Amino acid sequence: MEHIYAPWRYSYVSDEKIKDCIFCHISKNRDDEKYEVLFSDEYCYVVMNKYPYSPGHFMVIPHFHTSNIEDLDEVVWQRVSKRARQAVKLLKEIMPCEGVNLGMNLGKAAGAGIEQHVHYHLVPRWLGDTNFISTIAGVRVYPADFSEIYSKLKNNVEKYFL
Fold first, then answer.
1. What distance in Å separates the CA atoms of residue 158 and residue 134, rounded to the nearest whole number?
2. Residue in 48, 56, 159, 150 with CA at minimum distance from that of residue 101
3. Are 46 and 60 in contact (CB under 8 A)?
4. How many CA atoms lie within 13 A of 20 on its CB side?
């Protein structure tokens, strides 16, 4: 049997589990370093995805807890959408990536991992960033240090989120 080691996942199994909504917890405890919060304002915040699809994958999340975008106040919806637009520019210029997947998975049937709290995903993409290893072996290879990416984005975020 072949073994694949992923020491960065140890915290997933060993850290204290948050019993309620993780996004509300981060909203109330905006510890930039611990939760890798890039930016926060009165309506929403931007945070790195702890288990990303690709390096630089982060989310824009309203402080208001709901699973339905139609329940968001219009001002909150506009701010979240504005931050998503600014985040695309940040990724294109700072990562720099060649494209960005931007979207929401609304409900379990749509693929939402945390369905009780709406959030945008922003996934930076590059030509050739998918290959046989994901298809054949079911494994993703990340060619970057995530803490370096967080620092790079965090150091530049104020230029984009005005």
1. 35
2. 56
3. yes
4. 7
Question: Which two three-digit tokens encode residue 32?
Answer: 């930039």
d(CA 62, CA 30): 13
Single pTM value for the model? 0.82
92-109: pLDDT as tens digits? 999 999 999 999 999 999
The single residue listed with the structure tokens 């919060």 is 37
Kindly provide the residue ranges of all beta strands, DSSP E only, lying in 10-63, ordered along the sequence.
Answer: 37-40, 44-48, 58-62
Q: What angle do CA 28, 38, 30 make, to 5 degrees?
A: 15
Q: Which two tokens stand for residue 109?
A: 């049937």
For residue 100, what are its two tokens? 């960005």
pLDDT digit string, tens, across residues 121-154? 999 998 877 755 555 556 565 667 778 888 889 8
Helices (H) and strands (E) in the chain, counts: 6, 5
Task: Convert the pLDDT of each residue in 41-93 to its tens digit.
Answer: 999 999 999 888 888 999 999 999 999 999 999 999 999 999 999 999 999 99
Q: How far apart are CA 79 and CA 93, in angstroms?
A: 21
Nearest of 60, 65, 101 to residue 81 by alpha carbon: 60
